Amino acid sequence: MKKLIISVLLLLLAENVMFSREKSTVHGYPITPVPFTAVELTDSFWGQRLEASRKVTVPLAFSKCEETGRYRNFEMAAHPNDSNEVTGYPFDDTDVYKTIEGASYLLQTYPDSQLKEYIDSVLVIVAKAQETDGYLYTARTMNPRHPHRWAGSRRWEKVEELSHEFYNLGHMVEGAIAHFQATGQRNFLDIAIRYADCVCREIGDKPGQQVRVPGHQIAEMALAKLYLVTGQQKYLDQAKFFLDKRGYTTRRDAYCQAHKPVIEQDEAVGHAVRAAYMYAGMADVAALTGDTAYIHAIDRIWENIASKKLYITGGIGATSDGEAFGDNYELPNMAAYCETCAAIGNVYVNYRLFLLHGDAKYYDVLERTLYNGLISGVSLDGGNFFYPNPLESMGQHQRQPWFGCACCPSNICRFIPSVPGYVYAVKDKNIYVNLFMSNNAVLEIAGKKVSLSQTTSYPWNGNVKLKITQNSVGAFTLKIRIPGWVRNEVVPSDLYAYADEDSASYSIKVNGQKVYADLQNGYFSIQRKWKRGDCVDINFDMNVRMVRANENVIADCGRMAIERGPIVYCAEWPDNDFNVLNVLLNPTAKFQVIKKKDLLCGINQIQTQAQSLEYDKSGRLLVTDHTLTLIPYYAWAHRGAGEMAVWLPYNLKAVSPKAVPTLVSESKINASHKIQTLSFIADGVVPKNENDRTIPYYHWAPKVGTTEWISYEFPEKVQVSTSTVYWFDDAPWGSCRVPESWKIYYKNDDGKWCPVTNQNAYTKYKGVANTVSFEPVTTDAVKLEVVLPDKNSSGIYEWNVR
Question: Could you write out the DSSP letters of every residue in 488-541?
Fold first, then answer.
């Protein structure tokens, strides 16, 4: 029984079983998860992802922990010293914990003695960094007199702000449980238990304790799981304490969901990752304690997300300002944040709500997130990552091999290996078939075994074959999820709707005979006494569909998105010989699906006829016919930097024709700091306001306090007399501020740079036109020189010269 429960925990959730506890009987989830170790994937789509995770992502993450000093932090914490330099982020420890978690999952599927030995060697370093009372936080311990600037002068002082002490505990516990299950060893689990005990002793509302809640949530989920593994009630009590005290401490803002008590919340606000982790923790604690007030609150919040704050890709978190949810219907595309970690959190929340309620609508959101906004966060080869996942780009976005703040890559490490555990679930004598991917599974129902296989080419076609290979249960009910996109429902709300006249359908056969049933909560139920060899053939019509957003989503007005099955598509530059950001889609478009087995690990492309719009030099609008080619959104940005769009205009009011050519757009651009977005300073696109994040910008980051420059080399000598700059400034969260000063130079006949004689001041207002007029000069090149602030960099939206 204990082994079964620990397996279930690997999927982050509690089973509906009973344990002897210090207090009352445990109330687990009504529906029981199936651990991923019970599901052997034979699927080409997900098999490729798992292989990339095993061979590339996890090894890369471990190497980056070495290269970036993550392990060195633990080594210095084992030998505290005033000379130890505290660098990086105070949550860097979690990259080690999360990577061990992902590697531990892999060990259960792919035993690897070398990997196991490597993890053990890392845990020796981690153990030595732990203080005698269990506290383990290298950002303080390595240099107690001069800890990290976010840590505060003493323990827990800034845990509700930026210290991340409880966040570190949460990921430590998650990783330790995974490692314990994989190896049976307690070396990591004991470290985590000692730190958890330290927190339980020092945090609470008893005399001598401090009342604190996590600034960044996840400890709530982790402590609930630790309770199940150890049987210690104090861990569940601590998780509930963290939730119940939220909104009652000195931290009471929406950024970290502390603006009101959790049971009174009804809107998703603030930092999207923190929010999702908190909602998942509330579900876990509710399932284990029977607290229905938590469930009612999560249900309200979910309705808000699904109806007003969910991207069509399943991403959440609209704005980079605090990595946060925006206002209702605030869903910008190019500026979409949609952090990879938030997508993972969205899966966690929807999975738990399914286990509570048994409704397929939660899996509809989960599947949309999984196939689009989540796996877009890691490259197909497993070695490059997105932090934000925008829905439109002018080429300024590319996956990176790592980040200074590496939460997303290490989170991908731990998530991808767990995917097989989301396929099935059980309740009484019911088997839920929730996801469609080829696999062989052994499920337990009422203490007896059922083995089944699933064969499919999903998501590329809608044919699925389920076969019963062993059955010692006899009669049971197979509950097959009929996806929302089959039921002509984009998402379980009016946020998106199909805009075409097509209509999907489905059919199900048992041993060749068609069967019928009324759907209940989105499930097609087949109850019978199953025999070995029985086959269920499922066919979902998989047509290309056009989607419109709710009219309140201003960013998508006059635009359509294209999807097929669970896959959202986008138009990207390598497949089209015109700028896809200037396209006009036919509102009654016809589509062709083209299989491309050798492209992007095997995809289906979609093609349709469309038009592009642009202005010529005289300002005349030109319209050109094209064949528009689309690819799955998750596969974009694998072939270099360039334009991409998910939402495509079908209404002329939404089209952005290619701008009239100008002097600067036809010039050669150079700079002291050459990055991909340099060309966008001359694209003719200016910000709507100082906080516009819908257009690209150029910046000199990470440089600070230096003198930098950009220049235009004109096609020929011309007379110029004005220069206009739109400064980019992303205070307070970002690294750019308006410059200390700036000047314009021109190149004289001797090839020397000379300052212009300006007739008005060099202004520094962010996001608006800063125009300087100067005495006319005839030249073939001009230069803009800036002095960066001492502690920040600077950036430019647009620089024009006339």
Answer: T-SSSSSSEEE-SS----EEEEETTEEE----BTTEEEEEEE--TT-EEEEEE-
Q: Which residues pair with 718 in a beta bridge?
A: 779
The four Cα atoms 263, 268, 269, 274 give a dihedral, to 10 degrees, of: 80
Other C-beta atoms lying within 10 Å of the C-beta of residue 231: 14
58-67 helix and 407-415 helix, angle to the nearest 10 degrees: 150
Which string of DSSP letters, residue by residue, matches 356-409?
HH--HHHHHHHHHIIIIIIGGGB-TTSS-B-SS--SEEES----BS--SS-HHH
The whole-number pLDDT of residue 22 equals: 34
Name the 3-class secondary structure at 180. Answer: helix
Kind plus residue range of the DSSP H or E element containing 561: strand 559-564
CB 761 within 8 A of CB 725: no
In DSSP terms, 631 is beta-bridged to 570
Q: How high is the pLDDT of residue 1?
A: 38
CA distance 802 to 783: 13
Q: What is the pLDDT of residue 677?
A: 83
The confidence score (pLDDT) of residue 7 equals: 42
572 tagged catalytic: no
Structure tokens at 213: 């809640």
Q: Is the dihedral of CA 361, 366, 372, 373 positive or negative?
A: positive
CA–CA distance, 443 with 420 (Å, rounded to integer): 13
Q: Give the pLDDT score at 723.
A: 96
Nearest alpha-carbon partner for 294 in 311, 310, 279, 308: 279
| pLDDT tens for each residue of 382-399 | 999 999 999 999 888 899
Q: What is the spatial distance between Cα 269 and Cα 262, in angstroms, rounded to a whole number?
A: 12
Give the N- to C-terminal CA distance of the chain in Å, as an integer.
Answer: 77
Q: Which of 323, 563, 572, 643 is labelled catalytic?
A: 323
Q: Do 414 and 340 form a contact (C-beta atoms < 8 A)?
A: no
Q: What is the pLDDT of residue 692?
A: 85
Closest CA to 484 of 375, 565, 593: 565
CB atoms within 10 A of CB 455: 18
Ranges under pLDDT 70 in the chain? 1-27, 733
| E strand intervals along 211-363 | none
What per-residue confidence (pLDDT) applies to 9?
A: 41
Tell me whether residue 160 is one of the annotated catalytic residues.
no
Residue entry with tokens 């990552």? 385
Q: Supply 306's token pair.
A: 């699904």
549: left (phi > 0), else alpha (psi -120 to 50), else beta?
beta
For position 299, what pLDDT does the model report?
98
Contact by Cβ (8 Å): 298, 264: no
250's tokens: 């000195």
Among 633, 640, 684, 657, which Cα is nearest to 584's?
657
Residues 198, 256, 338, 407: which is the catalytic one? Answer: 407
- Residues comprising the chain, all counted: 802
Minimal CA–CA distance to 29: which of 353, 260, 340?
353
Label the pairing between strands 430-433 and 475-481: parallel
- Alpha-carbon span 508 to 462, nearest angstrom: 11
- Identify which of 754, 767, 725, 719 has the alpha carbon closest to the alpha carbon of residue 742: 725
| AA identity, residue 635 | A
Quickly count helices (H) and strands (E) in the chain. Answer: 16, 30
Q: Which residues lie below 8 Å from residue 17, measured CB to CB, with a gap of 6+? A: 1, 4, 5, 26, 28
- Judged by DSSP in three states, 126 sits in helix
